[in-house]
Amino acid sequence: MLEAQPETQTGRCPVRLDRPGAGRLEHASPDHPPVPQAKIGVLLANLGTPDNYDYWSMRRYLNEFLSDKRVIDYPAWKWQPLLQLIILTKRPFTSGANYKSIWNHDKGESPLMTITKDQTAKLAEAMATRFGEGVMVDFCMRYGNPSTQSKVDEMVAAGCEKILFFPLYPQYAGATSATACDQFFRALMTQKWQPAARTVAPYFDHPAYIRALADSVRRTYDAMEEKPEVLVTSYHGMPKRYLMEGDPYHCQCQKTTRLLREELGWGKDVVQTSFQSVFGREEWLRPYTVEHVADLARQGVKRLAVVAPAFSADCIETLEEINEEIRESFEEAGGEKFTYIPCLNDEADHIEALAAVIEANLAGWTAR
């Protein structure tokens, strides 16, 4: 038998372990439920993905996403009839076709799912190197599967007395970071023994993240004979009204671009900011990427590169929208060479940057 750590260190009663991760209380009655060894959980969170690209899979996913009041904040009486009767009868077909064009058919999942799994595995390895087996790393999706609730349940059942929740959005936005945290807190509300919890702040200006972003640009440019004339940093858009109501997303995007430009040592005209994925009739943050790249082409820019610093992993907004729709807009307006620079994904310097953010946020919870 192996003895667990003493009560003063773990907060749990002394345990004798019959198998890895679970045991019985040393002085408890025989029918006492098994008690897992205390751990710290690191729960990564991304936006989400449909389970498949068929109509009903897409409809379920879009319904959950577009019913989120953080995403669409119109009154339900006004928004839900439009969503249920019009948008969700048509959009699953078009969105499903877009997902099909980028789907990882070998693994039967979206690229976002594949990449997030790879990121999680590498971060788990990095945490094991730093802290041993006492830190458990997993991921969840705000919409779709695996759900936040299911992963919080798993971590609590595995003995996580503390959970660090990490939304994988460099820049904060109410429609991304905040709604992910909302769901995390809702999941905590269901726990009998609620773990201590922390959330990771946005890391849009973290030096290691900026360096990784700049290095990804340099690697792409170094491999090209003719360098792009302009680099566009394209961020996911949001209604301009959100900015006026206090959301810091726009300002954090602008700062990320400025820090990237300074790290590269390039001028303001060479690195420009725009916003994509406009939805509905309301005015969104400008300039719109799909229009901006066409304007650059009409102004004589022949070679253009686009990078997406708001996305930690390639997804429908990058692989389909940027690399297909926005590319087409540039080329139709007279542009000749369009280069999409992939997200940082599971690149070693990105994993190292994320690991540094995690380690800083675990301060006081671990021996290091």
Walkthrough of the structure:
With 368 residues, the protein is of the alpha/beta class. It has a domain of 135 residues: 3-Layer(aba) Sandwich (Rossmann fold), CATH 3.40.50. The protein is 45% helix and 18% strand. It is built from twelve helices and eleven strands. The strands form three sheets. It has a four-stranded parallel beta sheet with strand order 5-4-6-7, with helices on both faces. Strands 9-8-10-11 form a four-stranded parallel beta sheet, with helices on both faces. Helix 11 links the parallel strand 10 and strand 11. Helix 7 crosses helix 9. The relative contact order is 0.13.
Note the total helix count: 12
Q: What distance separates the N and C termini?
A: 28 Å
Which sequence of SSEs, written as H and E, runs from N to C? EHEEEHHHEHEHEHEHHEHEHEH
What portion of the residues fall into strands of 2 or more residues?
A: 15-25%
Helical residues, percent: 40-55%
Oligomer: single chain
- How many whole angstroms does the radius of gyration measure? 23 Å
Number of strands: 11
Task: Just give the CATH class of the domain at 207-341.
Answer: Alpha Beta
CATH fold node name of the domain at 207-341: Rossmann fold
Low-confidence stretches: 1-22
Average of the residue pLDDT scores: 92
What structural class do you assign from the helix and strand content? alpha/beta
The CATH level-2 architecture of the domain at 207-341 is identified as 3-Layer(aba) Sandwich
